[in-house]
Amino acid sequence: MAEIWLNPTRLFDGHTLHEATAARVENGVVTGISPVAEISPNATVSTLNGTLTPSFFDIQINGGGGVLFNTSPNRAGLETIAKAHHKFGTQHWLPTVITDAPEVLEAAVSAVLECFGEFGIAGIHIEGPHIATARKGTHKPSFIRPFDAHTMAQLKRLRTQDIPALLTVAPESVTPAQVAEIVALGVTVSMGHTNASADEAEALLAEGATLFTHLFNAMSQMENRAPGVVGAAINSHAYCSIIADGLHVDPTMLALACRARPLKDHMILITDAMPTVGGPDQFMLYGEPVHLKGGRLINSQGSLAGAHTTIPEGVATLQSVGVSMQDALRMATRNPAKLMGLEGQIGRLIGAEASDLILMGETGKISALTSI
After folding, report:
1. Domains of the chain and any CATH numbers
2. Pairing state between β 45-54 and 366-368
3. What pTM did the predictor assign?
4. Which residues are catalytic, by number?
5. Cα 91–chain centre separation
6. Which residues, 6 or more positions from 309, have their beta carbon under 8 angstroms from its beta carbon?
7. Contact 116, 123 (CB under 8 A)
8. Residues 110-143: pLDDT tens digits?
9. What single-letter DSSP state applies at residue 37?
10. 74, 71, 75: which is closest to 283 by C-alpha?
11. Rounded to whole angstroms, how far apart are CA atoms 197 and 189?
């Protein structure tokens, strides 16, 4: 049996960050970990400079490599986006289709049905069209609409094939009873792009919503007498995804949110990445140009339009505000896997193929372990 020990500077097993610990790889699969001091002197050991970790899982990727999923909802589009993010360590992801015409949503669902399990596709994130116009962000208002039978039909298409689905809605556009029905299908429901009150958000939590999409951004803010969705989110037992690029959320607020959550490991790092990641510095969204300027993606109205960032950059930003490397890596691997019911498949070291591991250097540079 072919066996090798990988001895990195640090080893993250999906839960704990270890030092002076190596991973045993047999026939290309990680079968255990051990303190380096306890490894046989006759063993084959490969010394690695950096942090060995399961590859990242990003539950909100809109595009990459010059391609936007909304405008290329097909196999070629998904493959191009996946390749753009793969080199930054994200080997598992949810293609994200934002608010658009019903036929675009249908095409996006068809593409994921066709390609599920390929290119690291672990499901789909449907962000809109059932959101609030008051907090639309860059989503096109003419496509925003209340939850309807068409979207329910698309969710049923996905769940009939056991494909994980994440749906971001606003309490303004869906009723608690509808949320209960969606959750009963096995769909993960999130709240985002909403101007709702804390009470309205809590009504959806009571019916099974388990996530808030990009905390602080495109949601009612926290005030002394009105907690808003931000206050409800931070104080809840649900998960919160967050963009840690230093632009979407002030570093002080990022640190505050991570410290304030009542349940540990309920923060999820996302990129909300657009086609400029691994691609040119502009793209078209709803027929209008979006430009990369000073690290920000700006549309023709001067508003932020998604993000130009990667998971390694987010991990570094989190560490810069006091989040431990262990917790930052959990936010990029284990936590999203738990949210989506994929903990046994994604975000773990033991049982993973070596090709599903990455080595993160001191500068955040990512190397794959494809030759083990």
Report:
1. 3-54+350-368 (2.30.40.10), 56-339 (3.20.20.140)
2. unpaired
3. 0.97
4. 272
5. 11
6. 243, 244, 245, 271, 272, 273, 277
7. yes
8. 999 999 999 999 999 999 999 999 999 999 999 9
9. G
10. 71
11. 18
